[in-house]
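Can't paste images in this forum, so I'm doing it all in text. The chain is below; anyone willing to post the predicted structure tokens underneath?
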Amino acid sequence: MPDQDMPELLQLECHFTWGLNVTDLNDLQNRLKSNIELSDGEDRNIGWSYSNLAFTKFKQGLLEEAQDYLEKAEEHIRKHHGERQLIVTYGNFAWVYYHMGEHAQSQTYLDKLEKIKMQFPTESPAVLHPEIYGEKGKAFLTFSHQYSEKAKDCFEKALELEPEEIEWNEGYAVALHRTEFNLTSFQESPASRQLRRVLELDPNNAYIMVLLGLKHAEYNEYQRAEQLMETAMGLAPNKPYVIQYVARFYRKNKQFDKALSLFKRLQEMTPNSAFVHHQLALIYKSKRQTSIQKGGEEAEALLTLCIQHLDQAVSI
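Text version of the structure:
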């Protein structure tokens, strides 16, 4: 593929054309790797984690590592979702091979992509495949909270085409949860309705369960919130993103010992997470304040632990 064909790549819908930026590549990579390592191998989202990792490696100029992760993404997505959901992956391959100088191989993936589009046509050229809208939305959610509105728009378009698809319903619920503020009641919350919709489609979705619990807590329905947190932990006791939200719930509700226990478990799973160290520092700070108020003698030790974790959070 000669340089004059670069516009063909620019027209693709993939990570390379979505304007994705991230301030801390190492932190994002650590989170993605932890999700992969701690999955049971059957997690349907792992293929997208590989795709996101591939793009971060490209950002670092590590093209061969990007290629390796795309190969893993292709294998996982084909196994769990089918050929049609490889549209974005093949676009990413075309970009990586182009930058590796392997233009013939880049063209091969453009041809594969075109074959899928012909096999699964949309109603008009202006309408993208739902898989593109969905994966684009997932990428926006993964790379930064600042893209949450864009993610919401993507999932709305995906759901117009596939209203019963669990993945798009879940992504839409997460995007609504991130972008919804200052409502007066649980009942009027679109995020709450969508979270419950996902649980109708996927009753054992622990991640969505904890987000729904946080919504209940937001409207001071703490008993129902804690019930959902406990159920979610029973369903997914080793999922970092579930543990993280449950632990934060306990910290915000001043149940510091429960929060501390969960964040320590999370630290063992994800030792290079600046977020976890920061959360531990906040807990030790709160415990120190409580100790001072009660005339306890452990305030100095708690301050030391707080400082240690803040230092680690900054150094990672």
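The domain at 1-121 is CATH 1.25.40.10 (Serine Threonine Protein Phosphatase 5, Tetratricopeptide repeat). The radius of gyration is 22 Å.
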